[in-house]
Amino acid sequence: MSNRFCIIMAGGIGSRFWPLSKNNYPKQFLDVLGTGKSFIRSTFERFLPVVPAENFLVVTNAAYKDMVLEHLPELKPEQVLCEPMRRNTAPCIAYANYRIMSACPDASIVVTPADHLVTNEREFQRIISMGMDFVEEPAHREALLTIGIKPSRPETGYGYINVDADEKGDIKPVVAFKEKPNLETAKEYLAAGSYLWNAGIFVWSMEGIQKAYRSYLPDMVKLFDQGRSLFGTAKEQEFINEMFGQCENISIDYGVMERSQSRYTIPADFGWSDIGTWGSLFEHTAHDEHDNSVSGHAVLEGTQHTVVNIEAGYEAVVQGLDRYLVALRDKSLLVCRLEDEQEIKHWIEKL
Amino acid sequence: MSNRFCIIMAGGIGSRFWPLSKNNYPKQFLDVLGTGKSFIRSTFERFLPVVPAENFLVVTNAAYKDMVLEHLPELKPEQVLCEPMRRNTAPCIAYANYRIMSACPDASIVVTPADHLVTNEREFQRIISMGMDFVEEPAHREALLTIGIKPSRPETGYGYINVDADEKGDIKPVVAFKEKPNLETAKEYLAAGSYLWNAGIFVWSMEGIQKAYRSYLPDMVKLFDQGRSLFGTAKEQEFINEMFGQCENISIDYGVMERSQSRYTIPADFGWSDIGTWGSLFEHTAHDEHDNSVSGHAVLEGTQHTVVNIEAGYEAVVQGLDRYLVALRDKSLLVCRLEDEQEIKHWIEKL
Q: How far apart are CA A229 and CA A213, in angstroms?
């Protein structure tokens, strides 16, 4: 029996992909790239060569539990952990840790978002296996390891990891985590060669992550410890429902990684994107001869550099657009300039 | 009992208003102007002060019979005449004429499209009454009368009627019917003052129109005469279904009006449009402060001179458009430049 576990964080609602992603159908359940598989399905399959199916946990909102099981029929219902409310990634990961601890106190764990793209899955699996081997070595039981993506452009939409590039070997000590930079800073990062994109994928041993929580988030640990004997039992959900709202709303990055003294990164290059914007979707999909990315039954006339995403069962004629986004899903229509897509959240508030 | 009858021609499918109008829901049943009434309902009500409800006949496709009765519940089912196929306006009017003849051989008749806009209904009713009075005079029993609209712009989308402007009185002899002109010719027509828009509304006596059919469309008259005793009986529909396809596919304009020697026009000015295009719809609806015409639940951002028409139950965000058309109806979406809307037919053929 393997002691390698995978935590898939799947609680997001992804409003940036409105109207494709909505509260009732968030991004992780979509196949926006037209691969035939949803993001969560692809994420699951990507980790399956490294972690056995019975060692996956998906943390999500109760409202999405059935959807998770539909996309991942290999999982038993108890492998889907339900947050009663959104409380950011530190409580989410703590919950999964306590569940894993109840069955396997010496687990090694990889934590991943549910909705990213990886194009080179073999290389991805090599990197993740390398990371797990690393944290399983007695000398690195306290290591908190992140995956850092070698940047290909001065991207301002990602956080960066500054590593000690002089260190030999595949795994580098982290110097600092950096917020999303402005373009000038992003260009400096790219030129320096010692900055990596933070992919939000973490690898650690149970011993290491629990020690870090106890050091940096002791209040949260106290809350979870109160129900320690309940994890993996019929009383777990009730305990979580009552306790979860008391947890600090804080990310694993702020709550743990930025405070840790034992941080490492594997610089990696496996074709990664968080597909966090329509623009990134545009980059990662096939284009027609006029540089349009078209999904669904649509006729385009005099249109270029445009994303057209039409729900199955609908049809569309799109004419005379240049660098636009046209998306129809779930009885909602969006027509906007691609360059203005970061405003989507504000527009939908007005609806 | 009145011997004044009204024939409403309602067989069109109106593809120019795609996706609002489709085979299963053509323009005459829509309320594209947001008046609260469909075109066919407004047409019916517009004629009701001139013609009693029991003297209306609606000629349509069998597929639309129930829809007609839904929009015009005052009519009995037998007042809706069903064409088994589209055969243009001459056979359509002939069918209605024979039905009327079976009940009222000395009728006077007004024929109208089902899907036009009239803004001054009082003036409209005055003009139609004047026309019916005219064709009921013994001296004008053979007159074929059209309604001519005084042009307000050099419109290239309508046919024109050239009248003898020197003739005194409200009703002018017709010199010639003119095809849709190019812009240069349309400007000449407008400047000349003796050209009127052909509204496709006709007034005549039964005697006059039957004589004209016998003279100019004798083959069609022969076909209808074979079943003369069946009109108004239970056998009428079967006769029509078998015979109608043998009729020449020809308009009343080509088949009768252009050949007649007894043609008249009433120049009129009652606020008329055929609302044949999205552009004309744009002209006749209320605009917001950015000159947008919006129907349905939509948020517009940085958008101007644009028509947004969203089906009930849907929502839309429309951003960054200038002089576009965005229409969502019946699972079909259209986004196009308003100036290119005449191409709609070609685009939907590709779908």
A: 18
Task: Give residues with Cβ within 8 angstroms of B33, minimum separation 6.
Answer: B117, B275, B281, B284, B285
Does the complex come out with an ipTM higher than 0.90?
Answer: no
A315 → chain B, closest CA residue: B332
Residue with tokens 């064709």, as numbered in its chain: B135
Assigned token pair, A227: 């129900």
Chains A, B: CB contacts under 8 A, how many?
Answer: 103
Please say whether the beta carbons of B198 and B113 come within 8 A.
no
User: Which amino acid, A300?
Assistant: L
Phi, psi of B309 (to 5 degrees): -130, 100
Mean pLDDT of chain A: 93
pLDDT of B212-222, one tens digit each? 999 999 999 99
CA atoms of B248 and A80, how far apart (whole Å): 70
Spatial CA neighbour of B256 closest among B227, B228, B214: B214
Residue B244: exposure state from Cβ atoms within 10 A (0-12, 13-18, ≥19): buried
Contact B269, B150 (CB under 8 A): yes
What number is the average pLDDT over the span B19-34?
82
Nearest Cα to Cα of residue B272 among B153, B166, B96, B94: B153
User: B103 — contact with chain A (CB < 8 Å)?
Assistant: no
Q: How far apart are CA A278 and CA A284, in angstroms?
A: 10
- B156 pLDDT tier (thresholds 50, 70, 90): confident
- Contact between chains at B317 and A336 (C-beta distance less than 8 A): yes
> Which chain A residues are Cβ-neighbours of B18 within 8 angstroms?
317
pLDDT at B7 over 70: yes
Q: Which of A295, A322, A315 is nearest to B334 (CA)?
A: A315
pTM score of the predicted model = 0.73
